[in-house]
Design a protein that fits this description.
alpha+beta; seven-stranded antiparallel β-sheet; six-stranded antiparallel β-sheet; 15 helices; 20% strand; rod-shaped
């Protein structure tokens, strides 16, 4: 033991530094062992002496803060200043391996160290050299309490401390990048450098406890190159060490290359570690996606810039492609709808011409002398039946019905029994329409009655269910006048012909055999039935002609455009209609969401609508919506190609930046 100013020093020092030695000594006044830090005896550098005295002043100013090495006394012997501190069992460097595979113990120890550093920051002290050798331990069994020591190069927080590549104060393995290049790594001020630097030092301590080695290793130039690069610190997982994800995030957040991305204070680090120990998610694990993207852009600015450029170019190309695909689809949609409206209008003209022909055939029946004579006598006879059969060929009509002025059935071809002839049909639309037509003709000039215009003779009635055979039919009716009466010709009855629903209207087909995707149909408003005599006329639409429709059967059809058309017809004044007048262009419409109710034709269609003259009938020409599958497939291909280009662009960006970084310091 060497006597020294009231202390007995061991012959061999516990530790040696460039300018000082640390001895274990017996304190005679306290009766206990202490640690004495004594400057070397050789000629002393005034700068080193000043630094030693600053350390003593710093230790004295910190007082007895928790987990900070306890300062006992200071003095000077023979021009050699010394410090007296509590003696501890060793340093953290002596027991790092005891904390591996014990993440909870490492987190608890670092939480205490972080609080001690935060307390020093509160006193305005920046440690600048946090490393395992400067953390004293009360015991080396992995359960001891830590104490932050060696404030030899500490400075006030407000002091700038920019190092150079030739001279770095502190351990190169534990200092932050901004200590060397402040502007490059986002250091805004001297105070921010100090706090962020100590936070980085805490991260290196935690990293070494978890992984068993510092974040960077190798020769000084290699460590410096890795430190100054923008590449993040390798994660513990990348080095084969399994650590709880939250604890790894805390550690890597402390080791962010940019100071702005680290924790803002050592106290925040301590709170995050406390949250981990309490099995609560730390704040770093609760960041929003927006904050995470922002942090990524700060962490990897080159990749972020390149990725942004690639993204903008790809999105621009995708937007142009999508716009072009969409425009092509819209143009094709408009083209198909316009073509269907034109086809519907042309087909409606053909139907109107065919109905005129039906009216001419029925007019010949109404002018048959046998029909007029027997109807004037209001009696049925074989001659009347033969006359009706002659006037109504089977290829044009399914049946012909003769009604008297009151709507009673006089005769029917083909015959269906006497009970049918006892019924009254004055509730039917074909009777009401023919009656109204007779009244209009009676008010007209005599020469107009004697030589009526074909388009004003017949009435095209609504669709109905025949009481003779139970089939759905549409009908044409016409009044019968006795032109041989002594006075003014008078109406003596009505003749009505029916045609059942079918896949064609006589010889007229509504579908194009050369275009299987285009289907046509004829629809009509439905007439009321005998059991609904007192209700308003139903606005229901029934399909009369459709290639998928069996003879005599019908289905209901509806839709927004059809409902609007029905409302307009219901609002018309029947007496003002001229059914065989050519329709105006505004009666042609379209819909890109038409639904076909016939079995086997369900799905979405692009349809054009055209009214047949001013009748209750409507022609629909529709094209399958699948015709737009080509543009839609092009749209999907554009999206897929854009996604692939974006992925390839990102891969190229990251590969290129990584290759550049392997060749030079960045």
């Amino acid at each position: 033991m060497l006597p020294f100013a009231g202390y007995e020093l061991d012959e061999e020092p516990l530790a040696q530094g460039s300018s000082a030695l640390v001895y274990r000594a017996w304190d005679q006044s306290r009766g206990a062992y202490v640690a004495i830090k004594l400057m070397r005896g050789e000629p002393q550098n005034p700068t080193e002496v000043a630094a030693f005295k600053r350390e003593a002043a710093t230790a004295r100013s910190l007082g007895n803060l928790p987990h900070v090495a306890e300062f006992l006394a200071e003095g000077e012997v023979e021009g050699r200043p010394f410090l007296v501190m509590t003696l501890y069992a060793g340093t953290l460097a002596d027991c790092v391996e005891r904390y591996q595979e014990r993440p909870a113990a490492a987190a608890k120890l670092m939480a205490e160290v972080a609080r001690a550093v935060a307390a020093a920051h509160a006193k305005g002290i920046w440690h600048r050299d946090l490393k395992p050798a400067n953390i004293l331990m009360s015991s080396l069994d992995g359960e001891g309490a830590p104490f932050v020591a060696d404030f030899g190069i500490a400075k006030p927080l407000a002091t700038s401390s920019r190092s150079t590549l030739s001279h770095v104060a502190g351990s190169l393995l534990n200092i932050a990048p901004e200590r060397v290049l402040p502007a490059r790594h986002g250091a805004a001020s001297a105070e921010s450098i100090g706090v962020a630097d100590d936070v980085y030092g805490l991260g290196t301590l935690l990293y070494e406890l978890l992984v068993g080695r510092p974040p960077y290793e190798g020769a000084e130039n290699d460590v410096l190159r890795q430190l100054l690069s923008l590449e993040p610190v390798p994660s513990p997982a990348s080095r084969g060490v399994r650590v709880a994800r939250d604890l790894e995030k805390i550690c890597l957040c402390c080791l962010e290359k940019r100071a702005a991305l680290r924790y803002r204070s050592a106290l925040e680090v301590a709170r995050e570690l406390d949250a981990f120990l309490a099995h609560k998610p730390p704040l770093i694990s609760q960041l929003s996606w927006g904050v995470r993207v922002y942090r990524y852009c700060l962490r990897r600015p080159l990749q972020a810039l390149a990725a942004g450029v690639v993204t903008v170019l790809t999105l621009t190309a995708a937007t142009v492609g999508l716009w072009a695909s969409r425009e092509f689809e819209q143009a094709l949609r408009r083209q198909v709808l316009e073509a269907n409206m034109y086809a519907a209008q042309a087909t409606a003209g053909q139907v109107l011409h065919l109905l005129r022909g039906f009216g001419d055939s029925l007019q010949a029946c109404a002018e048959n002398s046998a029909v007029v004579a027997h109807l004037s006598a209001t009696r049925r006879s074989p001659e009347l039946t033969r006359a009706l059969a002659t006037c109504a060929p089977e290829q044009t009509f399914d049946s012909v019905l003769l009604l008297d002025m009151a709507g009673n059935a006089v005769d029917r071809v083909p015959s269906v029994g006497e009970d049918y002839l006892k019924q009254n049909f004055s509730f039917r639309d074909y009777f009401v329409g023919a009656q109204r037509l007779a009244q209009q003709r009676a008010r007209a000039r005599p020469d107009a009655i004697a030589d009526p215009a074909p388009r004003e003779v017949a009435y095209v009635a609504r669709a109905h269910v025949s009481e003779g055979d139970g089939q759905f039919k549409f009908s044409i009716s016409i009044p019968i006048f006795d032109a041989k009466a002594s006075e003014k010709p008078r109406c003596v009855g009505y003749v009505m012909a029916t045609s059942g629903t079918n896949s064609t209207l006589a010889s007229l087909s509504f579908s194009d055999p050369h275009d299987p995707q285009r289907v046509g149909m004829l629809v009509s408003l439905r007439d009321r039935e005998r059991y609904e005599p007192n209700v308003p006329t139903p606005g229901q639409l029934r399909v009369l002609v459709h290639q998928g429709l069996p003879h005599g059967k019908s289905v209901t059809i509806d839709g927004p455009e059809l409902a609007r058309w029905v409302r307009e017809i219901e609002q018309e004044e029947p007496a003002q209609r001229r059914q065989f007048r050519l329709p105006s262009p505004d009666q042609t419409r379209s819909s890109d969401d038409h639904r076909d109710p016939v079995r086997g034709f369900s799905g979405r269609w692009l349809a054009g609508y055209a009214r047949v003259g001013e009748t209750n009938q409507l022609v629909i020409v529709q094209t399958s919506y699948s015709i737009l599958a080509g543009p839609q497939q092009l749209l999907r291909r554009t999206l897929e190609c854009s996604g692939a280009l974006l992925a390839l662009g990102f891969c190229g960006v990251f590969a290129g930046v990584r290759a550049l970084r392997k060749r030079a310091w960045v």
